[in-house]
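your task:
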Amino acid sequence: MEMTPDEARRALADTEAAQRTVAVEVGAPAAYWWGLGIAWVALGAIADLGNAWLTVILTFAIGLAHAIVGGRLMGGRHRSGRVQPSAATAGRDTGLVVWIFLVVLVLVTVGLALLLNADGAGHPALFASLAPATLLVAGGPRIAMWASQRAARRAAA
């Protein structure tokens, strides 16, 4: 059975539309971002207690949890059980974009904590963690979605 050129164009358009629909599934679920934001604030609160060992242990525990859970999710291919898009659709750099976002948030947290501490504010690490945690919850899903949409556009081109 041969396809006419119009049927081939429609099939190609349907394939591209399905690929864009699947690209929406790429990224981490909202619960991941909320969990990371809460962990960020908890780490700030623990740091303000002044127990260096507890802070270090918690930092490594959060880092390990993020490496395990985030490593699987930030590849962009395991957001839900409904679909597992190809690496080309998910985008190879989605994890890198999210990692850079997290590094910037660490730098913002440390900078704010140092400024608040120099100003004599009580609980500088806790207060410094609030802004980045808010950015995680609000911005994390958007950044992951942006990266996956970018990948979908590249895959379609």
Summary: The longest helix spans residues 124-156. The CA atoms of residues 16 and 68 lie 32 Å apart. The chain has a mean pLDDT of 80. The radius of gyration is 20 Å.
